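Ops channel
N.P.: pipeline sanity check, posting one input/output pair.
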């Protein structure tokens, strides 16, 4: 226990650091809660307008039947979750849904497919979707599993702005959650995405039975990348019946907020997204996440397969917190 708050370093922190040690990230997470949130809020204000929230919307363009065994996922073919698998959605349906999202105020459209990896036979269809969604004036993001270099290049040329590929948890805990691919596989795809010139969206999930040390390990892995991910989604596990993680204890709200704060401090210029799990969070918890530096949310009543807050509830939350959508 601390008798008083440890002093914050006097000199302003350097703009961007990629040399965080694991001990430094652990020390951040171990700070007294109020001190940690205060420091994160300060960093947030230095780099962003704290009254702005970026709004993204998700669509599952190919649902279920995935070959991977991610222990949290409703879409893995390894678990009986009652989810009906479907084929890749026709381009016109995706575009219609994207138009509605844009009308609803979304700035970025994130499209997910339950694939282990993108297959060459699907590249043209995916590129067509990207360029049509992009032409609506939306930022585009896709999450399609592993990519080869030429596939990443094709997506970039079609107009894909972001590629989401989460590291999900710490390198040490990864094998407890997924066995059909390695942590290194994730890093390799992230590098491929970067080399093709796209921005990286990468984060993880909290509440999968990991400890604070693992949460530090996950933040450390992200914050020591050669370039910080442009977007860092922090998800709270949505327990899905039928998956191995369905019985996981809910993450303590303050632990969740601590991790958001550590992401903000270590990756000061990245957009930190309060992602899955908001439907089960109080407004007060979400407000503390925004204070601690989260500045993006998913809007829309469904994420990929699971519930997200009603749009009217989010509009009301933003109004009560005097927050507004991020300007382009
Ligand atoms: N198949 C692709 C992949 O895994 O990269 C893309 C889709 S996958 C559903 C996208 C991300 O959603 C996962 O990496 C994971 O972080 C998050 N996710 C999936 N199921 C979740 C759940 N039940 N609770 C919280 N986050 C979840
Ligand atoms: C991310 O980190 N979270 C989003 C997005 N990236 C693709 C997905 C959340 C999925 C939540 C569970 C579901 O809807 O199936
Ligand atoms: Fe497949 Fe992605 Fe779900 Fe893992 S998280 S089972 S890769 S859809």
């Amino acid at each position: 226990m601390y008798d008083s708050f440890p002093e914050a370093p006097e000199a302003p922190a350097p703009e961007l650091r990629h040399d965080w040690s694991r001990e430094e990230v652990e020390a951040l997470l171990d700070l007294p809660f109020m001190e940690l949130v205060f420091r994160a809020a300060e960093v947030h204000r230095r780099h962003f307008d704290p009254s702005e929230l970026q709004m993204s919307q998700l669509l599952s363009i190919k649902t279920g039947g995935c070959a991977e065994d991610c222990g949290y996922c409703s879409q893995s073919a390894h678990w009986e979750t009652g989810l009906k698998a479907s084929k890749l959605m026709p381009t016109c349906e995706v575009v219609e849904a994207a138009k509605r999202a844009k009308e609803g105020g979304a700035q970025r459209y994130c499209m997910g497919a339950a694939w282990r990896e993108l297959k060459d036979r699907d590249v043209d269809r995916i590129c067509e979707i990207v360029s049509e969604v992009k032409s609506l004036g939306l930022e585009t993001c896709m999450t399609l599993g592993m990519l080869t270099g030429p596939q990443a290049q094709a997506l970039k040329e079609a107009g894909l702005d972001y590629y989401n590929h989460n590291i999900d948890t710490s390198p040490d805990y990864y094998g407890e959650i997924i066995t059909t691919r390695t942590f290194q596989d994730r890093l390799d795809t992230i590098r491929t995405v970067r080399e093709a010139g796209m921005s990286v969206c990468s984060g993880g999930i909290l509440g999968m039975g990991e400890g604070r040390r693992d949460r530090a390990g996950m933040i450390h892995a992200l914050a020591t990348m050669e370039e910080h991910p442009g977007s860092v989604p922090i998800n709270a596990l949505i327990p899905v019946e039928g998956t191995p993680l369905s019985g996981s204890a809910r993450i303590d709200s303050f632990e969740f907020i601590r991790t958001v704060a550590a992401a903000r401090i270590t990756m000061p210029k990245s957009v930190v997204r309060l992602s899955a799990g908001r439907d089960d969070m109080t407004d007060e918890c979400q407000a503390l996440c925004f204070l601690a530096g989260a500045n993006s949310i998913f809007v829309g009543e469904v994420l990929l397969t699971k519930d997200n807050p009603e749009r009217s509830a989010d509009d009301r939350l933003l109004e009560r917190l005097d927050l507004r959508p991020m300007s382009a």
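N.P.: looks fine end to end. Residues 66, 68, 70, 73, 75-76, 114, 116, 145 surround iron/sulfur cluster (ligand 3) (CB under 6 Å).
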